[in-house]
Amino acid sequence: MLFLDETSGRSTLFEFTDLPVAEPVRRWLADRVARWFTTRSTVKRLPTARSLVDTARHFAVVLSEHPVTVRQPEDVVAEHLLAFRRRYEHLKPRTVSGYVENLRRLLRDDERLSPDAQAGLAAIRVRGTSRRDISKPGYTDTEWQEILTAVRHDVRAARDRIHAARRLLARYRAGELPTGTEDVTLGRLLDGFERTGELPRKVDTNGTPDVHRCGGLVKVAGMLCLSPDELAAFALLLISLTGQNYGTIAAWPAAHFRPDGGLTDEGLALVEACKPRRGPDREHMVIALEDLIAGGDREHRWSRSPLRVYRMLLDLGDTARRLSSSQGLFTGRIAKKTAHTPSPWITALTSQHVQRWAAARGFPTATLAVPAGKPVVSVRRLRLTAIEWRRRPVAHTATTMRDRYLMPHPAVQAESHAVVAAALDGEVSKARDHARMPVFTQNFVDLARRDPQAAAQQAGMSLRQLAGLIEGSQDTVLASCHDHRASPYERPGVACSASFLACLDCANARALPHQLPIQLVAIDALEQVRPHLPPALWARRYAPRLDQLLDITAGFQPAEIDHARAAISDGHRQRISDLLEGRWDLH
Fold first, then answer.
1. What is the DSSP code (8-state) at residue 208?
2. What pTM did the predictor assign?
3. Which tens digit of pLDDT belongs to each residue from 294-303?
4. Are 233 and 239 in contact (CB under 8 A)?
């Protein structure tokens, strides 16, 4: 079976003829793998393809060693799948999870599997891990700035070095350098390298004395080309600015489209990119690199503008891109050729480039990291932090951003809890304000006795209704009702038949100072009932009433509360007892 890596263009032939199982099972496993090697599959790179093939091979070994013989796919049972899981008990949970997930990918929706095998496949679990590792949250502000400071330093140093070399080369070609100086020698070497990509060498392939005098082959060539570490720094900076995946950014082309025709410094550039995990119908996408920062000095703006960083990388890699005939954005020159890298040009970035950059800058690996030390440089955490800051989907849906990137992390959860709690408290406050019973203070009662017309206008009721409230003729158990024939619980004109506890919810109810003693008795009675009822029942039946009574009594002064407590009588206690035991509802 031939697999073609879409990124590198390399092809690999996978053999299935040596699998230690019967021929029908061998063909079945090969067919299951082949389904993932099509042009419409999300498997685009060789490492992913190799992991699927390895899983199929391991499963074949498990089938061949199991006591239950398998001669065709229909013979596979749940016990075979559990045996595959047990085969890797000695490995780390994360590794075992990878094998199990690959097996699920291969056998999912296979009509030849028996229902028992399909149930066994779904039942396999790996303890100590999950499908997505959320144990590593995004970077803190301090860690973020520490990494980006090192990144910007390298990018700035590369820019200054290449621009200085270009100015020296331009002066050499214009004949402006003094004859016989070291600058003339360096200019001549740069001129030859810029045109041919080669520097003068002796027979033993070492540099000539002029090259050594100017710093050596690596230094002179690096004056016009980016190094692998500098390319990695550019990639990390673009991740922090765009939130795109490292693999997606590393594959960006050097071609782009400017809607403004490139006539302005601001605006945006449209770059074609590919993200295979989005599926064959959505893997190709156009990324807009914008320059949204206005004002401020140019030195501050360039490192915070995706468009400016892209254009700088495009410019600094121009020499290496032309000499290597590369079409990619990330093109540079390695320090020296080796057996594994016969070409001095680097045209593709890998994860190893980031690891080497981090190690050279003193950032630790995961095994050597300490809590108070430098952070571990991770492209996943860098992207996660960028998404947490942007709070906008980046090459994924809003649901994916919410469920997979933001919600699992403690910092986002804490912030979400605070936002939700504030919103709920606001809604509760509005509900309480809407349902809170108006309280007539003693000052209002005195006004009603001096000037009934003014008091009635202030209360929004008739003189007859106000007189009944002040005299107490319209009292219920816990409040007063200014119109019991306009009840929200009955038809207009019909006397209210609701429980007296419901008065606390009614818009017709009003609280007056002479009712404060019985309200205090009700509060004490509700508190005494609480230990004798199931918590859920008390919370549903009496907790809202207690809150309403506390809101009413909160409008009185401490001296008024003390005076009301002194006026509590046995009659008050009996009426509250009758109310809570339901005897008032029988009248």
1. P
2. 0.62
3. 555 566 677 7
4. no
